[in-house]
Amino acid sequence: MFNTLEPQQPDALLAVMAAYAADTHPDKVDLGVGVYRDASGVTPVMAAVRKAEQRILDSQVTKAYVGAGGNRPFAAFIEALTLGADHPARAAGRVVTLQTPGGCGGVRLAADLIQRAGHGARVLVSEPTWPNHRPLLGGAGLAVDDFPYYDPATGALGFEAMLAALARLPAGNVVLLQASCHNPTGQDLSAAQWQTLADVLERQQLIPLMDLAYQGLGDGLDADAAPVRMMAARLPEVLIAVSCSKNFGLYRERVGAVIVVARDSREAAIVMNHLQILARRMYSMPPDHGAAIVATIAADPALTAEWLAELEAMRVRVGTIRASLAAALRREFGTGRFDFIEGQRGMFSLLGLPPAAVKALAAEHHVYIAGDSRINVAGLPEAKIERVARAIRGVTD
Q1: Going by CATH, does the domain composed of 65-299 fall within 2.60.40.420?
Q2: What is the DSSP string of 170-206?
Q3: What φ, ψ does residue 44 adopt, rounded to 5°?
Q4: Which of 28, 151, 276, 334 would you label with 88, given CA atoms 20 to 30 Å apart?
Q5: Exactly one of 130, 291, 298, 378 is catalytic; which is it?
Q6: 30 in active site
Q7: Taking a C-beta distance cutoff of 8 angstroms, is the pair 102, 113 a contact?
């Protein structure tokens, strides 16, 4: 059976991880893997998560399946966290939420739902976008194209080119939009730009698929979800994929959701039925542990307050690292070439370095970043900011 298989190129980021692991240099730096790290270089377990987890271990009496729809208190909390407790679409019964294995599961189930609807819709993604978007969407059988978004050479958003490309699309196509903390660029739309974009989507009858993977790490929980809430208020149909990996630190627990805003409550109920069938056919039942942790935190005001404080500390720290790195690069280069880093949001920035410079960073300076020159700002220890800035200067013309 397997003699027909040909060797494939390994995932580029996994190759970076392997190269970093094999490097024996005592002062190596990993800015490739997209996880938050604290000042000691550790991806911590949040205190609120640890307490919630202990309560679950002490009180859980069964490991029975949770059902294809997942943990329902978790789903209700994520729906309210994403759209707001009093969103008019929720009040009208137009919203359904299903727990998924991580944000990836949310994107894939949304893609399967689009394919199942049978309208032949294409999905447009930003150029650049998170590398896993294309295989997740294409794996569902969807045609995937892109629209212009960002110029790595200048660190500038190409908003007018983006609008022009979307304005040419026929009705019924789907546009994947990262709601906040854009991966890999870190460059988000302004509030006014989001409204203008919604005008185009509404006029062209395009459907947004909103990927919300970093809520709370940009400008705050409500601000980061504002584009999603606005789209859900203005447009008849919206799909949303949510991840709890970053804002709860539950990377390995694979906790996420897919939220669908339908035209009315009747269609919403039908959508939920189809989502459960799709989930059942793909992975049968979702894991419960991570969702139970989130639901436990949500049910206890003290734990919620503790989680919110921890998340805010993470958000502020990432912003501080951005400012410090931009300042260090300004000193090294004597120009504002990399000042865009400070103004961006979330965990990532795209440096705009050529492949040769990326390779030289690893080979000569033991600094590992993604091949497209994306860096994980949240993985940069404060003590190594100056060293990384010197390394970037050392490989840049």
Answers
A1: no
A2: PTT-EEEEE-SS-TTT--PPPHHHHHHHHHHHHHHT-
A3: -80, 155
A4: 276
A5: 130
A6: no
A7: no
C-alpha of 378 from chain center: 14
Whether 246 is catalytic is: yes
Closest CA to 242 of 263, 224, 230, 220: 224
What is the rounded CA–CA span in Å between residue 282 and residue 274? 12
% of the chain at pLDDT higher than 90: 93
Q: What is the CATH number of domain 9-45+304-394?
A: 3.90.1150.10
| DSSP conformation class of 285 | S
Active-site entry in 225, 246, 257, 292: 246
Q: Residue 394: CB partners within 8 Å, gap ≥ 6?
A: 360, 364, 365
pLDDT, tens only, 362-384: 999 999 999 999 999 999 999 99
pLDDT tens digits for range 189-208: 999 999 999 999 999 999 99
Active site includes 307? Answer: no
User: Quick check: pTM over 0.90?
Assistant: yes
Enumerate the domain spans of the chain: 9-45+304-394, 65-299
Q: Which of 30, 211, 224, 288 is catalytic?
A: 211
Contact 202, 236 (CB under 8 A): no
Task: Give yes or no for a cis peptide into 135 (omega within 30° of 0).
Answer: no
Residues 6+ apart with CB under 8 A from 9: none
Residue 152's pLDDT is what?
Answer: 83
> Using H for helix, E for strand and C for coil, what is the string for 31-63?
CCCCCCCCCCCCCCCCHHHHHHHHHHHHHCCCC
Residue of 111, 165, 213, 291 marked active site: 213
> Which helix H or strand E contains 22, and what residues bound it?
helix 12-22
